[in-house]
Amino acid sequence: MQNPCLRGKIHCMYISNQWQDYTLIDATGGYRLEQWGDVVLARPDPQVIWHMSPEHPKWQAFDGKYVREGGGGRWKCCRPLKPWPISYRQLKFIIKPTDFKHTGLFPEQAVNWDRIDMLIKAHKKRIGNGRPVKLLNLFAYTGGATVAAAAAGAHVTHVDAAKGMVAQARQNAELSGLRDAPIRWIVDDCAKYVAREIKRGVRYDAIILDPPSYGRGPSGEVWKLEDSLYDFLIGCRPLLSENPCFVLLNTYTTGLSPSVMEAMLSAVFGAAGDCERGRTESGELGLPIASRNLILPAGASAWWQPRAVE
Questions:
Q1: 310: which residues sit within 8 A by CB, 6+ positions away?
Q2: Predicted TM-score (pTM) of this structure
C-alpha cells in the first residue's frame, strides 16, 4: 500500500520574481550580471557553468566586477561604491559589496520573505488573544527574514555570531521603519544560544535556520553542515511551541539536496514521519535571468508546517 504521506510528492522551485529594485540581467561564463538599484555588478557564481555570448550591453558598462586572484579576490570598480539602499515591497536593505563577493543580501530569499509574512499574519489571526508570534532566526546574517517577520508583526530574536552582520541587520530594520519593533539582537554562537534557551524554558512559534556550509565557533568548534546539521535540528526541536507556525531551513551547500533537507525536517519536527502532525515541502530557490528566459538556481529551502496551517 502506498504511504499517504508520499502520494503525489513533488519538489518545486521557489522563484523570486517580484523585485522592483533588483534584476538578474544575465548569467554566463561563471558570472552573473545584476542591477541593484542603479548600480550594476558582475559577480562570480559557481552555478553558472554554461557559456553563452555576453551580448547584453551592460556587460561593458558595469559599475563593479569581482575578480578572482590567488586564493581570494577583489572588486574592480569603475566608480566609488559607497553603501546604498534598495527596497523590496515595504522592506529596505543596505547593499555593500564585501571582500567575499557578497553584497549583504540574498535576493532569491524574497520569495521566502513573502511566505513568512503570510504565515505570521495568518498565525496571529488564528491564535488571537493578542499573544505575540515569537520567531527565532538563527545564523540570521543581515536580517532579511528578521525584517520581513518583524514587519508582519512577529516578535523576533535575531542570532548571528558576526557582530558586523548583526549591526547591518539593525540598520536594515531601521531603514524599514522598524527601529522600535520587538526585535532582540543577539551576537552569539547559535548552538550555545539554543542550549541556553532550552534551559530557560523559552519557546518559539517559528524557527528559521540559514546555517553556513563550514565555519568555526568562538572556541574553535568546527561546523561542517553535512556532519552537524541533523544534530543541530534535533537540538532545536524543544524550542518549538505547542502551537507552532513553521520551521524554515535554507542552505547554499550544493551537496545537500532539497529532498535531504526535507527528510531531516520531517524526521525531527514531524514526529518521526507522522504525516498527521505536519507536512513538509522543499525546492530550489531561483532567480529569473531577464535577458535569457532562464532561471538561475540559487540555493534551496525546506519548510515544515503543522497541519493546522493548511
A1: 279
A2: 0.91
